Amino acid sequence: MTRVGLYPGSFDPIHNGHTDIIGRAVKLVDKLVLGVAIDTGKSMMFDLDERVAIVEEAVAPFRATTEILVQPYAGLTTLFARQIGAGIMVRGLRAVSDFEFEFSITAMNQQLDRNIETVFLMADPRHLAIASKLVKEIAMLGGDVTNFVSPSVKARLMAKAASC
Ligand code: ADP
């Protein structure tokens, strides 16, 4: 049986904390789908095509060992998981604040679909403080994001900052 995992997120933009979770999730599943949320309810810095493109770049090193798909999705994450045959949902946990949010979402998801198990991977201590929101703020204020994102994402963030 093929174990399919879904790692959903906004990835606006993808950063080293996300990439670390991907690198660990590929050890747990046969196929990993990166679900890039289309309607996030938040205002995005990067449009969907850009978010998909940078996620594609980030997963490239892991394709050698595991089948990886990057797929935009809209609507309920559990429905998307069912559509793609994912039995495992991967989420990253940074802090107690993440836990409270993830706990309530997972409790609801369990009622929506009992066949999907959510697996939480604790953030690597080196990446505990990294959040897309903070990375964007730092870049817009002229700070150095080298330690938080890939060189390609850094270049894209700097271009956004320069165009504002
Ligand atoms: P969302 O918009 O669903 O919060 P994000 O793109 O911000 O999505 O994050 C996707 C997933 O990655 C979430 O499970 C989030 O907790 C996790 N995550 C975010 N930042 C980190 C980090 N620094 N280390 C580990 N996991 C993280």
Task: Give a quick rundown of the structure.
By secondary structure, the chain is of the alpha/beta class. The protein contains 6 helices and 5 strands. The chain has one domain: 3-Layer(aba) Sandwich (Rossmann fold), CATH 3.40.50.
Can you lay out the helices and strands and say which pair or pack?
Elements: E1 4-9, H1 16-25, E2 31-37, H2 48-59, E3 67-73, H3 77-83, E4 88-93, H4 96-112, E5 117-122, H5 132-140, H6 151-162
Parallel strand pairs: 1-2, 1-4, 2-3, 4-5
The chain binds adenosine-5'-diphosphate (ADP).
Model description:
- It is a single chain.
- The protein is an alpha/beta fold and 164 residues long.
- The chain has a single domain (4-127), classed as HUPs (Rossmann fold, 3-Layer(aba) Sandwich).
- 41% of the residues lie in helices and 20% in strands.
- It contains six helices and five strands; from the N terminus they run E-H-E-H-E-H-E-H-E-H-H.
- It has helices at residues 16-25, 48-59, 77-83, 96-112, 132-140, 151-162, and strands at 4-9, 31-37, 67-73, 88-93, 117-122.
- A five-stranded parallel beta sheet has the order 3-2-1-4-5, with helices on both faces.
- Strand 4 (88-93), helix 4 and strand 5 form a beta-alpha-beta unit.
- The longest helix has 17 residues, at 96-112.
- The N and C termini lie far apart (50 Å).
- The model has no long low-confidence stretch (mean pLDDT 96).
- Bound molecules: adenosine-5'-diphosphate.
- Residues 9-11, 17-18, 21, 40, 91-92, 94, 98, 123, 127, 130-132 line the site of adenosine-5'-diphosphate.
- Adenosine-5'-diphosphate is lined by residues 9-11, 17-18, 21, 40, 91-92, 94, 98, 123, 127, 130-132.
